[in-house]
Structure formats: structure tokens, C-alpha cells
Design a protein that fits this description.
The structure is a homodimer of 363-residue chains. Chain A is of the alpha/beta class and 363 residues long. Chain A is built from eleven helices and 15 strands. The first copy, chain A, has a five-stranded mixed beta barrel. Chain A has a four-stranded mixed β-sheet with strand order 12-13-14-15. Chain A has a two-stranded antiparallel ribbon with strand order 5-11. In chain A, helix 3 runs parallel beside helix 7 and helix 6 crosses helix 7.
């Protein structure tokens, strides 16, 4: 499949409260350096990783109020690269918007839409996988999702139950998807993984724009109809206002829940690339190189008799003494001290701050 | 004994690295608020606690470079209150200097010299104890130290082995001191406490200036002689320079080690006041009121599922998540995260910073 036929859409609209206090409303996960020991932010790594797949610059799909912060980290992308949403409305709206833009500006193309904030290795193999997904999406009638062969019974990911094998490919076979499974508990995750019929849901999709729009119109008209109406103004002066009006009424719903779980036209490519959605500080820790005592540290840290700690000192300094299994994240205005394994519960701190303040620690 | 016969000397020269990062070279322990939940610094509490014992304002004995910081916390004391040392030279020099000043300015008085940074309760009973020590020192030939009846086998304090009972007093009996015992290990501490012949060494002394100077001249001439020479210039323009010259040559040695352990003219009053030398964050924690989960917090702290933690948030904010038994001390430039019970080892962090930097975290 020709590189000129592919359009890349990088979904960069996440809010990232799970990485508080480094992650803030104005500085979400995708602009933080959370992939291993690489000092570059996730969105920059993602752009660099997938850009070779297409002759066109990737689209950055995000709420307008994040565009400045994103542009700061992507200086080589022009203004045209941004597909800006009037406000955050989750992934269903973002995907439908992207499909319309593709249909208008690149008819006949195949879109590969992927999150800005995942860990994937190795990059070359991953690009082969995305290209294979795009090739499959071009010739089939379906939306093709990235499936990952699980290597442990993860409870932090959604799963895809696979059905019939549809095609053998060098980088992984393509299957029909029978069911989307929400994040399971530990017991269920074990069963899913040992059964051999489930893949992790990589949240990454290849599709022809007209297919996605068809499925959206059928299964999610409350999002599809207002956005389609806005596109009647495409290329005219009124488009921006029309899109704002549409986003005022569309519900916030994920593409998985709103479209993928409802359509039968969904397939998956079962890949074995190394993948992690980096859902919490605990996940981030897994990809950092530990020192001899198992500490995974970034920034200026003084350690006496500490082990297996994850530390981000920010622009300041952190001193550890006699502790183990902690997550310590320091910023100018606060510091989080959490037990490792509690990364998912950082949102409880955020909720508490939302309820009791100080509110400025969230901005 | 008349209040006009007593002179109070508050030894405020400590450096306080054990309270890093709140404690710094420029902001030692005695100017920090470390006594229970009282927001006032230790030196202010100490002055307020003992001032009623004398008609004269207490002397603040400290290195000159701390005088500004001390004065900031003691606005009601005039310049005359300060007995300033040219440089820090430990407690033997400070006590000898104090004794000379007392001999010159208040002949016939009895001096009560006490640390600026201890926890004592209740204040009224404590003053009665100090007054009794002064009365004993006035009539005996000895230096009278504060002994505390131990209520647990502490390893963080020095001990006094008592001999013959010399006098019965309402606030505690007076004994001869047979031996000074350095901080014992846990086993030895148990033996000392169960034997009933040992008291904690409160580091507080009542003495007539001429007695202390006599003992200093006999047992610690390397400190006593240069300082005595400087006092030949007392009241003249050259005194300050002479004292500086003396302090350039006197060794840094504690009064316990340099004088008390060597003289036979030392007695102790066995008191049962509540006392703690607040030697570490662990000690400080003991006197703070815990919340329902055992957390002892000061400043702006958000807690989710944490217990038995000691937190000083400084002017910033600290968030705890799923942790227990930690000491967390945040300042503008750093944060210490230590296991409770490791308070004594904070000096290891300080040593590391001295060796490897950043040096400005110590200033």
C-alpha cells in the first residue's frame, strides 16, 4: 500500500489526571516524558515513530485549548497539522471528526488513528503492523484495531475476544472481533490470557473514512449527526462556529463504547510488539532502567538506603532515606508520595483536590 | 533564692542538621517549630518558659552569625541579651564564656544554663526544678545538672550514674554523679533503666561562675586559658578581637566531655518532669497530636489512605497515597522522604550532600 494513501491521526486529547502532580489540566500525559528514560514527551515520540508511514504530515487531533502546549513540543509541525476540537468530547467525536477531515481532504485514503501516549517497541516492527492494518482496512469493509498478544494477565487493559481468522499476515494474523471486554479483575484476566482467545485492546484503528462514518451514523447518531451537519459548512467561513455548535451537543463517549462494541464490522490484527498504554506511574516505572537498588529516578535525587522507588524530582530535589516501594513525584508546588501499586488511585487525590482544594494544584 | 540572684543562659548555638531539610545552616533546629503542635520556634518557647525565673533578661549564647536569625524570633529581647561567640565551638567554650560574662556583670549570681531546643512539661514544675538546682548550686561547691528519671530505655540520650543522695528536695532529690554514660545501645539502655541508678542527662546546668571557671581551668585549660586571656580586655575596645583570637585556637568540645566527665564536683537533681531533647524527626513526632489515622501533619497535606506518617509541608503542599510510617518534610527546594525510625540517619543525607552536592541545599 502506497504511503501516500495513508493518513495518520494522533489522538492527543487526553487529560491525564493519573499523572498528577506532573500531569495537570494544562500539561496532560501526552506532553510528559513518561516513556522509559527518553527525555522527550510522549506525543513527540509518537509522531517520530509513525511519521514515516505516510507522505503527509500526521494530524494532531486535540481540543483547541491544548494546541499551544502541543505545538511547543512539536515545533516541526505546521498549523495545518492540527485538527482542533472546540472542547474535549472523548474519542468517538475525535474519530468521527478525523474521518470527515480525511474524507474531505484525502478522499480514497485510509486513516490510521492512534493514541499519542502509548509505549511501543520496536518502532520498525510497529510501523509494519500499522501498515498491515491499513492495507487490511483498505480492502475489507471493516475497522481494523490493533490487538496485542498478552504476555501477562494485565488488569489495566481492555481485551478483545477474537473469532474466526480472516487472513494470515507476516506481522500477525487478522481475526474478526467477537466482543470487547472491559478491564477485568485479576482472576478473570488470568482466564482470558490462558484461554488464548483474547488480545489486549491497543486503542489504535485503521479505517477508510466512509466506513467509520457509516458505522458512526448507524450506531452513534447522537455524535455523528451534529458533526456531519457541521461539515456542510466545510471550507466556508461558518465551519468553526458550526463545529462548536455540534460539540456543544454531542455526548462525551469513547469510540470503543460508542462504535466498536456495537458494530460487527470490526477486525483485529494480532501483533506481538511490546506495548503498554502507560496508564499510571506504576506502568511508567516498568519501562525505566533501575539502578543497582531497583530505584528508577529522574532529576536530582539523593538516596541513602532506599530501594525499588520511582522518583521524578522535577526541577527540584528529592532525598530518600530508608524507604522502599514508593512513587515520589515532586513539582514546584507539591509532592506526591504514594505506595507503588497505588498508581491507579492517584485519581482519588485529584478528586479530593477537586472537592477540597487547593484547586490551583490541578491547573 | 531571690530571682535577682539567678542569671539564665540559653545555649542557642546548635547547627541542627538532623532536621534537614527544614533545618539548615542558616536556620538551625532552635528556630524551627518542633515542639508539639505549637507554631512557635523552640528558642522562643524556651525563653518564655524560663524567663520568670530571673529578674534579668536571659542571655542568648550563640555564634554571631546566628544572631540575626535568632533576633527575628525574639523581638522582645534587646541587643544586650546576646552573648555572641565569634564562631561555633561547642558547649564547653559557650559555658566558659557565659561564666566569665556572669562573673563580670553579675558577681555573686548563680547561672542556669540550658539548651534552647528541648521539650519540657509542665513549665511551672520545670521552673521549680531549675530554681532548686540553682539553690543547690549556690550553697554547694558543685555544678548541678538536670537528671531525668527515665520512663523507657531510651537509646538517644546520655545517662548519669548517680551515687550518694546528698539532699531531699520537694521537686526531686539531689545526688552525687558518679559517671557520665554515652548513648547506650538498646540492651544496655534496658539494664541502665531497670537498675534504678541512672538518670537521663538533661544537658542543663546550674553553677556559680567561679566554680565552673575553676573546673574549666583544671580540666580543660586548652579552652579555659585562651578565653580567660580574652577577658583581660573585658570592657575595653579590644575585647571583641581578643575573643575572636581565643576562639581561633580553642578546640570544639562539649561541656559534658570536656568538664563534667572529668570533675568530681558535679551533682544532679533527679526530676520527673516530662523531657525530650527532640533529637530527630522521630522524637518530634512523639509530641504531635495524631489524627484518627495516626498521621501527624503540619501545613497543607492531602491524605488518601495513609497512616502513621509525619509530614511538614512547609509553604507548599504534600499528597500522601497508600503509605505508612513515613517522615515527609518539604521545603521550597527539596523534599525528604524517610522511613520513621530513620530520623537519626538524616545526617547521612546531609553528609552525602556535603560530599556530592548540591551544596545550596545545606545553606
Amino acid at each position: 500500500m502506497a504511503r501516500s494513501d495513508i493518513r495518520l491521526a494522533i489522538l492527543a486529547g487526553g487529560s491525564g489526571t493519573r499523572f498528577w502532580p506532573a500531569g495537570r489540566r494544562s500539561r496532560p500525559k501526552q506532553v510528559l516524558a513518561l516513556d522509559g528514560d527518553d527525555p522527550r514527551p510522549l506525543v513527540e515520540l509518537t509522531v517520530d515513530r509513525v511519521a514515516p508511514l505516510s507522505t503527509a504530515a500526521p494530524w494532531i487531533v486535540a481540543p483547541a485549548d491544548l494546541s499551544k502546549e502541543l505545538a511547543r513540543h512539536l515545533p516541526h509541525l505546521g498549523k495545518d497539522a492540527y485538527v482542533l476540537e472546540p472542547r474535549p468530547r472523548n474519542t468517538a467525536a475525535a474519530m468521527i471528526l478525523t474521518a470527515h477531515v480525511a474524507a474531505q481532504t484525502a478522499p480514497g485514503s485510509t486513516v490510521v488513528a492512534l493514541p499519542a501516549d502509548h509505549h511501543v517497541r520496536p518502532a520498525g516492527r510497529y510501523r509494519q503492523v500499522l501498515a498491515a492494518m491499513a492495507a487490511r482496512a483498505k480492502k475489507s469493509d471493516a475497522i481494523v484495531t490493533l490487538g496485542l498478544k498478552p504476555d501477562h494477565p494485565a488488569t489495566g487493559y481492555g481485551y478483545l475476544e477474537i473469532g474466526e481468522r480472516l487472513e494470515k499476515r507476516a506481522v500477525g494474523d487478522v481475526y474478526e472481533v467477537k466482543r470487547f471486554v472491559e478491564k477485568p479483575d485479576a482472576r478473570r484476566a488470568k482466564r482470558l490470557v490462558s484461554g488464548g482467545r483474547h488480545l489486549w485492546n491497543g486503542g489504535t484503528f485503521a479505517f477508510r473514512p466512509e466506513h467509520l462514518l457509516r458505522e458512526a451514523a448507524e450506531h452513534l447518531p447522537e455524535v455523528a449527526t451534529p458533526i456531519r451537519a457541521a461539515f456542510e459548512q466545510w471550507g466556508k467561513r461558518g465551519f468553526k462556529a458550526a463545529l462548536k455548535k455540534a460539540y456543544d451537543v454531542v455526548p462525551s463517549i469513547s469510540v470503543d463504547y460508542g462504535i466498536m462494541e456495537r458494530t460487527r464490522h470490526v477486525e483485529t490484527l494480532a501483533s506481538d510488539v511490546e506495548w503498554d498504554d502507560l496508564g499510571s506511574w506504576d506502568a511508567v516505572a516498568r519501562h525505566r532502567k533501575p539502578d543497582a537498588d531497583g530505584n528508577r529516578m529522574r532529576g536530582d535525587v539523593t538516596v541513602v538506603d532506599a530501594k525499588d522507588c520511582v522518583v521524578d524530582a522535577g526541577d527540584g530535589h528529592v532525598a530518600l532515606l530508608g524507604v522502599e516501594d514508593l512513587i515520589v513525584v515532586r513539582t514546584k508546588d507539591t509532592v506526591l508520595v504514594a505506595r507503588r501499586g497505588c498508581g491507579e488511585d492517584v485519581r482519588e487525590i485529584v478528586k479530593r483536590l477537586e472537592a477540597e482544594g487547593p484547586e490551583d494544584l490541578l491547573r
